[in-house]
Structure formats: structure tokens, C-alpha cells
Design goal:
Blueprint: H1 2-39, H2 45-49, H3 51-58, H4 66-76, H5 78-99, E1 104-112, E2 128-136, H6 142-210, H7 216-230
Antiparallel strand pairs: 1-2
Helix pairs in contact: 1-7, 4-6, 5-6, 6-7
């Protein structure tokens, strides 16, 4: 009876391993599809783990300086460039609205050719060249110009707030991702050490199983732990 119960436990452990294997295979396939879409590389998991292709990831230069990443965003990000252009356009609109307050000055010139008739002397009616300056100020547009200026100032303030909001969110995302990256590096080192220890434990259990010191259930359980440490 005890042997039958042990066999049942072994079968349960095997089924659990198979279930986890299917689940992790699905997760792996999902990540492989993501990598293909992001990089264009269509590789198998075995190829990724080989020295030839895995070096692509090992040699990837991860920028871990927040200031450098912010500078890269401000230099290359299209959304940021669009926001800056909107702010610049709003600033130019403000300048145009302010200029409407100033008077307009026009330089006027004309040439008059006199043609005396009858007994008039031509010397009394010489041709003339006239120049003048016209200065005009539309006092009735004051309220309209003021409203237009207020509208442009509001647009500029909105554009500036959008830039500030974009930069704050970007900085938060950068800090968050860098924190995750740092934690992932430390977790990877611990997981790698745990996997090596689990493999060594499984090797010892195999030897003890062959000597009759460990049961098949113990061996399967140790392999389960090694598998968990690997994934």
C-alpha cells in the first residue's frame, strides 16, 4: 500500500512538472514572438542560448544613466519634438498678438507732373516729388487685441505644461525601469546560484537513489526543485 501511495505521489509530481512545462513553454513562445517583432530576428530558444547569438544580448549596451537617457529622449523622441514645436509656435503667436498694439508706419511717395496751360508760365508750375509718412493707430481694436493676446498666452502656458508633464512622466519611467533592471540583475545572480545548487542536489539524490538511500519520489521532487530554479 505504501508503495502504491509513493507511486501516486510520483505520478502527481510528474504531472505537475508537465503542467509547468506546458505553461512555461507558452510563456517562452510569447516572448519569442515579442523578440521577433521588436528585432526582426527569428531564432529558436536553443539558438539564443548558443554562444553565437546569445552574445547579441550580452554585448547590448544598456544605458543606466538617468541624465543620459533624458538627453536621448529630448534629442530623438518625436513626441517631445512635437511638443517643443507647439510651444515655439505659441510663443510666435504671442509676439504677433503683441505687435498689433503698436501703430503702423507707412512711407508714402508720389511724383506730380504739372502741365500749365494758356498764358501760365511753365516755371511757375514745376514738377513735384512728394514724400510723407503716415502713422495710424486703430484705437478700436484694443479689446480685441487684448483678448487675442490672452488666448495666445493661454496656448503657450498649455504647451509648456504639456512639456513639463511629458518630462516628469519620462523621468519617472526611466527611474522605474532602471530600478527594475538593477533588481533583475541581482535576482538573476541569486537565481543562477540557486539553480546550480539545485542541480548539485539532484545529482546527489540520483546517486543516493541508485544506492537505495532515496526513494523515487525524493528524486522526482529534487528534479522538480531544479526545474523551478531553472525557470
Amino acid at each position: 500500500v505504501a508503495m502504491q501511495s509513493d507511486l501516486r505521489k510520483v505520478q502527481v509530481s510528474i504531472d505537475a512538472l508537465n503542467t509547468r512545462s506546458i505553461m512555461y513553454q507558452s510563456m517562452l513562445d510569447d516572448e519569442m514572438y515579442k523578440m521577433k517583432n521588436m528585432t526582426g530576428m527569428q531564432l529558436s530558444p536553443d539558438q539564443i542560448q548558443s554562444d553565437e547569438h546569445f552574445d547579441l544580448f550580452k554585448k547590448y549596451i544598456f544605458v543606466d544613466s538617468p541624465e543620459k537617457l533624458m538627453n536621448m529622449v529630448m534629442k530623438y523622441n518625436d513626441d517631445y519634438k512635437m511638443l517643443v514645436s507647439a510651444r515655439k509656435a505659441a510663443s510666435e503667436d504671442i509676439n504677433a498678438a503683441n505687435s498689433s498694439y503698436f501703430p503702423t508706419v507707412d512711407l508714402v511717395s508720389s511724383y506730380v507732373q504739372n502741365n500749365p496751360s494758356g498764358s501760365a508760365k511753365k516755371s511757375d508750375y514745376e514738377n513735384e516729388f512728394k514724400t510723407g509718412v503716415n502713422v495710424s493707430l486703430n484705437i478700436f481694436n484694443g479689446f480685441r487685441n487684448s483678448a487675442q493676446e490672452s488666448k495666445m498666452v493661454a496656448s503657450y502656458s498649455q504647451a509648456k505644461l504639456q512639456i513639463d508633464d511629458f518630462l516628469l512622466k519620462t523621468r519617472y519611467n526611466i527611474d522605474s525601469q532602471l530600478s527594475k533592471y538593477s533588481a533583475a540583475k541581482e535576482t538573476y545572480l541569486v537565481a543562477e546560484r540557486s539553480h546550480k545548487n539545485a542541480l548539485q542536489l539532484t545529482g546527489l539524490y540520483e546517486q543516493e537513489f541508485q544506492l537505495g538511500q532515496k526513494s523515487l519520489l525524493d528524486l522526482i521532487s529534487s528534479r522538480n526543485e531544479a526545474f523551478q530554479a531553472y525557470v
